[in-house]
């Protein structure tokens, strides 16, 4: 499991926070009832698994190689196993069940065909989807995955493919459980800047596929998942299988099908452009822009989509009107492609200059609330599990600031780091105040530095908190010293002391208490 890789040598260097911080957290935790109903969580993590390997939590599995020049086909061997036939030896199917390497945490909410899993050695959180070997479309999809290297920041990344006697098991990166439609689930309408930001990312992902002559042809609003981050909404294409495994009669697919493809389905640029633009309009209106009857059949829906004509003449926003009129043009020949749409004013004018990673991380320091040692250790665990990329950025920034390479950043070194990346008036006074609030003398260790710099709202999502509770509680209804000692690499006596302080010597945290401790950091 993810570990705090800078273990304390001297307790004086642990940077515990003020007694006021302990009192505040303890008060919040102990106010919660200890008589809450207990329930066992459906967590199948084997607590006897070794976690001695404390290297990178990235899965060490197969990285799918670049798009093959020759078609890969799966040849059936004995015992219902397949081998990949290709000139490249890099295209392989890993034998055996994925659960020899991973442990089940839970099924994905709203889609029980997808499981949230963790690597038994590294603890890296991933997700797994199973496909039947006796389904020709599933076999075609596995062939397609092995034939194409899909590597884009706005597309879910495939890590490994396993096979047992009955199933293929596709392991991919874990992204939050949020389908894009949840942004408007309660009738909420996105602002134009938000719509522009989401459209830009969706178009970047699908344009990347188009550049490889891959056309989706089954895009719906829930082909994408999202995370709300500090600098906006982050979107990824999470439904790759729809490219191969077709559900043309599915009502959701029909809703986002372009008129010319209603009775003559095809996969091409024009169809994908229509679907993305319609998703953008839906996010802006808060509802799909069709008048749909309560008794909706496939044929009724097909007729509505086929005959509907969008009219944008009365729209006041000229930039949005231009975007919609060129992307939702009923004449597919006049519909522009994604490369052109990415340069339309509605997309470009809302693309704000984003802060550099260093600017963002350092800005977080001045806004972060004080935290106790246990909170520090848990936030390090969470960042390693759910935001490995930012963890690496923080480690790099810490190394840059640690000029004398003593494993600590002094007040003077921190001021220098700020002055290198940010122009903040009276930064020396602000750093002085920070050190006073944290009751620090003159140095910060790497754990506290990470706890201060990380984007807390991003990593402390409801989904991440729930998953981490299930891991740290070792398949029980409470987190105890045993789970904390297993996954937090710090002195056992220090963890025990912190847990005792926060829980009035009960030495356990239920789910609500655990969530509260983390929410106090936001």
Automatic annotation (TrEMBL):
PROSITE patterns, alphabetized: EF_HAND_1, EF_HAND_2, PROTEIN_KINASE_DOM
Name of the protein described by the UniProt record: Protein kinase domain containing protein
Domain Protein kinase: 99-347
Record-level Gene Ontology MF annotations: ATP binding; calcium ion binding; protein kinase activity
SMART domains for the chain: S_TKc
Family of the protein in this entry: Belongs to the protein kinase superfamily. Ser/Thr protein kinase family. CDPK subfamily.
InterPro entries named in the record: EF_Hand_1_Ca_BS, EF_hand_dom, Prot_kinase_dom
EF-hand domain ranges (all copies): 389-424
Native species: Paramecium sonneborni
Pfam families xref list: Pkinase
